[in-house]
């Protein structure tokens, strides 16, 4: 399978939003392409995230979305690897690893100190994938949420 990866923008909005919608469905959210499209569009217009899409045989089949953060210990920029998704029909070909490696390269290219991520405890695939890609589990912190 031939693949390539690229940083996307408004020209690739529709295909990126379609993948984002499928990603949310994977996490048990209702299908809502229009709302997903608007959400991704806003991130792109306001330069609030960086999105890389992987193409297999010229079809958009996966993406990674990064948000800029700042690390108080490293005193440097870092990225939150917020979203990672590969279409189920294209899993098992290493495309998640390709997307993660692109995110790591983006850190190098933008002089960021690294990546952080969070995934559900029940995400067996992700919880095996991330350590294989060099991520370390941080058992010292609890993550809490406040939702309005």
How would you sum up this structure, described in words?
The protein is globular and about 40 Å long. A hairpin with a 2-residue loop joins strand 2 and strand 3. With 148 residues, it is an alpha+beta fold. It has helices at residues 13-26, 33-45, 95-109, 124-132, and strands at 3-7, 50-56, 59-71, 76-86, 115-116. It has one domain (3-132): 3-Layer(aba) Sandwich (Aminopeptidase), CATH 3.40.630. It has a 5-stranded mixed sheet with strand order 1-2-3-4-5, with helices on both faces. The chain is built from 4 helices and 5 strands, in the order E-H-H-E-E-E-H-E-H. The longest helix is centred in the last third of the chain and has 15 residues, at 95-109.
The tally of beta strands, per DSSP, is 5
What integer is the average pLDDT?
A: 93
How many domains, in number, for the residues? 1
Strand numbers in spatial order across the main sheet: 1-2-3-4-5
Which CATH architecture would you pick?
Answer: 3-Layer(aba) Sandwich
Low-confidence stretches: none
- What is the helical fraction, as a range of percent? 25-40%
- CATH classification, class level: Alpha Beta
User: Considering the protein shown, what is the CATH homologous superfamily?
Assistant: Gcn5-related N-acetyltransferase (GNAT)
Structural class from helices and strands?
Answer: alpha+beta
CATH topology: Aminopeptidase
């Amino acid at each position: 399978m031939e693949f390539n990866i690229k940083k996307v923008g408004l020209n690739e909005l529709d295909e990126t939003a379609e993948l984002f919608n499928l990603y949310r469905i994977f996490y048990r959210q209702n299908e809502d392409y229009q709302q997903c499209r608007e959400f991704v569009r806003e991130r792109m217009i306001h330069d609030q995230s960086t999105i890389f899409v992987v193409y297999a045989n010229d079809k958009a089949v996966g993406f990674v979305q990064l948000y800029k953060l700042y690390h108080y210990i490293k005193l440097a920029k870092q990225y939150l690897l917020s979203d990672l998704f590969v279409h189920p029909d294209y899993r098992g070909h290493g495309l998640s690893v390709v997307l993660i490696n692109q995110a790591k390269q983006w850190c190098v290219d933008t002089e960021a100190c690294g990546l952080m991520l969070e995934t559900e405890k029940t995400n067996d695939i992700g919880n095996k994938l991330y350590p294989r890609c060099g991520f370390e589990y941080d058992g010292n912190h609890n993550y809490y949420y406040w939702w309005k």
